[in-house]
């Protein structure tokens, strides 16, 4: 567990900060000393996370935001800078996907997933870098990928989008290291969040496909993200860190589908 002052003096912006990995990350960054800005589309979960942070003595600003809309992102970044004066840490947790056979993914469905996972992450990242990190010559940007990294049946659209984020983290590290900005991707495996039920899978079967024989928790992913944002992660950039209980190393651990006649 990180020290209580591991991110002290930093300001973190966490998209998708009302639920799941985003909420856990916001709470962990606040616990370790950062002031936190959270955003998401729904006010209620944002208010709950803000209340938890403030009850523990932390500082939190919650801004309902659809990060797919550039004008709302502008409002979000302005609000963060007005309140705290800088954004030192950016964690791009906002995302969403649905399960479907690849041949049934419509052009609109493909675009919807990529618009949120890739386009919105870039919109937020570019603006935060332009308005705060580049002028201040420092910062950490975290993208959230997927594991297994080689692809997941039923998620061709989402896996492709998250692979793009891995490449974006690597590419930006090559360009923005000169500004003192680190960019990394954290790729979780199957994590036991409140949104997992929507996929209709058997949780015990999913756990058996993981070498550690269990699902991960949002807090476990959040602790890795917080470490990468802390001085302990100061020499890590351009990398993808997998947090998946060994699932990526093991592969799908299941028989391939039978051939269609």
Q: Can you count the beta strands?
A: 7
Low-confidence stretches: none
* End-to-end C-alpha gap: 53 Å
C-alpha Rg, in Å?
Answer: 18 Å
If helices are DSSP runs of H or I spanning 4 or more residues, what is the number of helices? 8
Helix proportion of residues, in percent? 40-55%
Structural class: alpha/beta
Shape: globular
Description:
The protein is an alpha/beta fold and 261 residues long. The chain contains eight helices and seven strands; from the N terminus they run βαβαβαβαβαβααβα. It has helices at residues 20-31, 43-55, 70-84, 107-136, 156-176, 203-208, 218-229, 247-250; strands at 11-15, 35-40, 60-64, 89-92, 139-144, 181-188, 240-243. Strands 3-2-1-4-5-6-7 form a seven-stranded parallel beta sheet, with helices on both faces. Helix 2 links the parallel strand 2 (35-40) and strand 3 (60-64). Helix 1 crosses helix 7 (218-229), helix 3 (70-84) packs parallel to helix 4 (107-136) and helix 4 (107-136) runs parallel beside helix 5. The chain is globular, with a radius of gyration of 18 Å.
Keywords:
8 helices, alpha/beta, single chain, 261 residues, seven-stranded parallel sheet
Short account of what is shown:
By secondary structure, the protein is an alpha/beta fold.
Layout: helices, strands, pairs:
Elements: E1 11-15, H1 20-31, E2 35-40, H2 43-55, E3 60-64, H3 70-84, E4 89-92, H4 107-136, E5 139-144, H5 156-176, E6 181-188, H6 203-208, H7 218-229, E7 240-243, H8 247-250
Helix pairs in contact: 1-2, 1-7, 3-4, 4-5
């Amino acid at each position: 567990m990180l020290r209580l002052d591991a991110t002290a003096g930093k300001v973190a912006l966490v998209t998708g900060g009302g639920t799941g990995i985003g909420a856990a990350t916001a709470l962990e960054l606040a616990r370790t000393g950062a002031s936190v800005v959270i955003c998401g589309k729904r006010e209620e979960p944002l208010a709950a996370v803000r209340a938890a942070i403030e009850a523990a003595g932390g500082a939190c600003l919650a801004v309902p935001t659809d990060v797919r809309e550039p004008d709302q992102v502008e409002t979000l970044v302005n609000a963060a800078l007005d309140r705290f004066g800088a954004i030192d840490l950016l964690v791009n947790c906002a995302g969403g996907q649905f399960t479907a056979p690849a041949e049934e993914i419509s052009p609109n469905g493909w675009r919807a997933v990529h618009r949120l996972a890739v386009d919105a992450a870039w919109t937020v990242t570019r603006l935060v870098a332009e308005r705060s990190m580049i002028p201040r010559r420092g910062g950490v940007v975290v993208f959230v990928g997927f594991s297994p990294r080689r692809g997941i049946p039923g998620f061709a659209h989402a896996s492709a989008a998250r692979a793009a984020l891995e490449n974006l983290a690597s590419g930006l590290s090559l360009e923005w290291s000169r500004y003192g900005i680190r960019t990394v991707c954290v790729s979780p495996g199957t994590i036991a969040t409140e949104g997992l039920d929507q996929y209709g899978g058997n949780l015990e079967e999913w756990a058996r496909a993981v070498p550690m024989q269990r699902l991960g928790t949002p807090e476990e992913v959040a602790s890795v993200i917080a470490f990468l944002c802390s001085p302990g992660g100061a020499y890590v950039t351009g990398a993808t860190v997998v947090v998946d209980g060994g699932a990526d190393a093991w592969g799908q651990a299941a028989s391939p589908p039978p051939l269609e006649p």
